[in-house]
Amino acid sequence: xxxxxxxxxxxxxxxxxxxSVAAARVPAGESVEVIVADDSVDGAAARLLDGRDxxxxxxxxxxxxxxxxIARNACLxxxxxxxxxxxxxxxxxxxxxxxxxxxxxxxFAADAVFGPVFPRYPAGTPAWFxxxxxxxxxxxxxxxxxxxxxxxxGNTLIRRSxxxxxxxxxxxxxxxxxxxxxxxxxAAAGRRMVVTCRARAHEDIxxxxxxxxxxxxxxxxxxxxxxxxxxxxxxxxxxxxxxVDAAIKLAAGAVLWLALRPFDRPRAFGYGRxxxxxxxxxxxxxxxxxxxxxx
Length: 295
Known about the structure:
alpha/beta; Spore Coat Polysaccharide Biosynthesis Protein SpsA, Chain A; 15% strand; globular
């Protein structure tokens, strides 16, 4: 069995997510269940799905903690599948999605498989911003089966037998970074993680997020999370070396951003995002907490 796992606050787009999952081809010999952890305080996801026939077994679990780690753990605890696939409630998947994930896991003997999520920017988004594509995570997806050292839960398969008792840390459940932390520990346990281009998903970007300010703020938060997860249990010398590296990259990124902006704005903004990530790393070293991402 394949268990498709969705943590949700009850956003209406959840219906499109589930419809796309239901339309995906089911690999031979497999069955599919969908589990939604409703983490809203008022049961918004449960109301949205009440009485809806999606053509697949569907369970809605009350979580209501306002903590995505708790919601994801509820999904893991309830899942019956040999294969667990996380997808976000603002994503849709392609018809070959299930087949792609399972074939990649089997072909590359992988314990986790990460697929790409392609942003769809709203009408009216500046052309240079679309060209820069700052909300796309470029993990060299075309290098099918390439091992990857860290991960996230948007469009991700996990082999159930490799999971053991590993769960998401609630300490990251409101700020984000719970998936980054989870897969660092998953990899440390000797699990094999790869990327694939076979299992594709798409994310509809709301207009409020299709802005340079949002992209830069997201990059800063990413850097804060990276520092917070990478420096756990390490001493002052490691933190100092980490800070020096981040400061050098911040300065280089900022200089290239300003230098290239008059000539190649998309490329320049890429360097600006790198500078923002390294600013976030420095903030993380001094104890800055990322802004709440789960709401």
